[in-house]
């Protein structure tokens, strides 16, 4: 079937392309001949689309495909709706509502039947009361007494029959009313259960979303955490900087002593200052001697540590 459809589709496409080519070749807007040729091409194309079997088959196939896809979509939506109703309990509420409507309809029918039986019984009782009045007036020796007695007997039989039907209709009406009331109470109970279940599902959903958001946040923080290898490399670089800063501090501390030694070795300085030998205690006051608590090391270490901490916080 697919091979046949492909062949017909290719045939239709080839014929349409030939028609389009002929229409474009003959299409020249400057002459009336081009206009007539264009009209002929359009009419030929229209007749081809209307009468050719391949195009008709292609149109039918497209229509069937659309119908099949729409049916599948409706089926899928219906299944999803049934699954949602079964999970939330909405199908039970719907069934209870349908049973309530059916019970209400049955109760209304029983009520109408009971009213009809009651109306018939009232009419028969009224006729029998009129006959009884006539029997009280007419003498028993009259010729019309026997027909009246016969009618009164027939009405009595009919009244008894209608009274039995009325009692049965009244019993059915009471039973239908009780069934309607019980179904209505069941519907209200199911609606309350449905509301309770929906609140529970809402609570479960909110808890699940909060847990999921917390897990995602933890995962993001875990991914953005500092790599141990990079952290170790950073510590090594900090240690190197600390050692370099210590060497710099030692060299800076050795500068005043070296200056004093050079000054004392010069003959001009020896002639001015009569000191037998240079010592750290005889350093002039004009030369700044750094104290032992000079915090170059601490400054460098704190700067490097602050830079690494800032990189860690900013990710």
UniProtKB/TrEMBL annotation:
Keywords in alphabetical order: Membrane, Transmembrane, Transmembrane helix
Membrane-spanning segments: 201-221
InterPro entries in alphabetical order: CCDC51
Taxonomic superkingdom: Eukaryota
PANTHER family in UniProt: COILED-COIL DOMAIN-CONTAINING PROTEIN 51 (PTHR28624), MITOCHONDRIAL POTASSIUM CHANNEL (PTHR28624:SF1)
Protein's UniProt name: Coiled-coil domain-containing protein 51
Source species of the chain: Schistocephalus solidus (Tapeworm)
